[in-house]
Amino acid sequence: MAVQCDGGGKDELKTQFMTREGVYKLMTLSEYSRPNRVGFNAQANTPVKVSFVTVPDPSGNGDRICFNVGRELYVYMYKGVKKAADLTKPVDKRVYKGTYPTCHDFNQCTVTNEGVSLLVGFSAGQIQLIDPIKKELSKLYNEERLIDKTKVTCLKWVPGSQNQFLVSHSSGQMYVYKEDLPCGNTPPHYQLFKQGEGFAVYTCKTKSTRNPLYRWVIGYGALNEFSFSPCSKYLATVSQDGFLRIFNYDTMDLVGIVRSFFGGLLCVCWSPDGKYVVTGGEDDLVTVWSFQEKRVVARGHGHKSWVSVVAFDAFTYTDSDGLDLCDSEEEVSPLPNDDASESSKTIASGSKTDSGTLVPNSVCARNSLSGSRSLNITSYRFGSVGQDTQLCLWDLTEDVLKQPIGRTRTSMLLNSPSTHLPTLSKCNSVGNAQANCCPKEASLMDGNLGLASLSIGSKSATLEKEKKPDKEHKRNFSLASRNADKNSLNKSNQNKLDDPVKLIGTSICPRRDEVSMLEPLICKKIAHERLTALVFREDCFVIACQEGFVCTWARPGKGILAQHVGSPSSSNPSGGTVV
């Protein structure tokens, strides 16, 4: 598959490109940034992240966007591709002193038209809970940094929960918090709850329940990102030690593991049906791992630097009734009056489903997997952005997914006959994820099952049962010994897992000729600064760069924003909050 990548001068940024389904266009008036539209110049600052939430609104203007720039945090009404952004009227603006926001997440379960719950993580380790609409709610967790003193790298509300959230730090620790519990005035003391290959889980040893509920110690080095599966049962984590680890979140069992060729892994995401996990990082590659087969099925090479974000496009896929997606892309000439070309008009046309969603006549069905009928998906679309300022779109097609398994590709994690590890074969509908996920009888909560332990001495794997005497649960671990715990964990796994050379050729890190190598469908330079966020929406995708600009790219046939609309005023908004 041939692909044309940008190789022009530094200032040659793409504002449109074509794929099989049509022309994607940058909507210049749908750009969100600081109110004065001045780029933020801080090379060593944290990445700009983007979060979305939709509040009930009869007028259809319920979308809200949150993004951080330097020490500032903004929440705006998001008007998408239909209306120009108005930067003079933020829903909320906050300026922090002494620390700066690193990540944020809305609680999708508690949204009302009167308020939303927004978590914000900070560079010094604190977590804040705010309501940008009511502006009355404000809680701080780890305020005195007694739980963890390092930067918050990722935080998310536990899916389906109204009051529990998960927070990871650059220390490699991950904590489970409950909204209404205190964090205490003294450092927490921990006791071992569960242990496995490369990880351990602790609980607080206290007379009264306090935060954190659980403390995970995973690998060594920073825990860069984590992601819940669509059915909420599984958790994928990526760390600076180069490992992707897949856990059963409920039972705290390790069910899958992958190693990068070199360097840390920085980002991770699940396919909308939960069957595949994609990760990227410092080896400049994207890696696709199959949950059902417990193996790497493909790697993709298109970026020239670290891959910072990967994301599946839940609105672009092919089911078993369609054909393979187009393997090539074409350069697009400037289009007059923002009109789509004849080819894109044809591709973008189609019929509407009962829900009103447009289903194009092309084989690339643009329809949300959420709430749709169960599909036998044969081709997936995902995207990636990196520090090379390029956007890559990838098609994961049936010929790659059904490639025969080679001798060296057997899974390093074997399922014990007694554990009956479930697959996600029934987790095809995101909209009905909880009901369609693994059956209760497949639960691993039985304490007699033990943990799967990896043996990396050869390409074959053995399954060992971990002995878990009751006395282990009575051990007391203080915060002062946290690093010692982690060093001990590292030492026990050092000979097995931290040497990538020894792992190359195993299923954890197959050689390049042992898996399919993907080439990007498109690879375009779209910014001057490194790209830090990528979110796919029904009528567009949203990208952020380190300068603090959040840009909207309209899907084929969706770019209807009138280009003559006046530019928003550059005046500073009033009512900002200084924290």
UniProtKB/TrEMBL annotation:
Q: Repeat: is it a keyword of this entry? A: yes
Task: Please identify the protein, giving its name as recorded.
Answer: WD repeat-containing protein 20
The record, for Pfam families, names: WD40
Polar residues composition-biased segments: 343-354
Q: Does the keyword Repeat apply?
A: yes
Q: Where is the composition biased (Low complexity)?
A: 486-495
Name the domain of life: Eukaryota
UniProt feature, compositional bias: Basic and acidic residues? 462-475
Gene3D superfamilies cross-referenced by the UniProt entry: YVTN repeat-like/Quinoprotein amine dehydrogenase
Record's keyword terms, sorted:
Repeat, WD repeat
What is the originating organism of this protein?
A: Caerostris extrusa (Bark spider)
Q: Show which residues constitute the signal peptide.
A: none
Note down the stretches annotated as region Disordered.
328-354, 461-498
Outline the WD repeats, range by range. 258-299
Kindly give the InterPro entries that the UniProt entry links to this protein. Answer: WD40/YVTN_repeat-like_dom_sf (IPR015943), WD40_repeat_dom_sf (IPR036322), WD40_rpt (IPR001680), WD_repeat_creC_regulators (IPR051362)
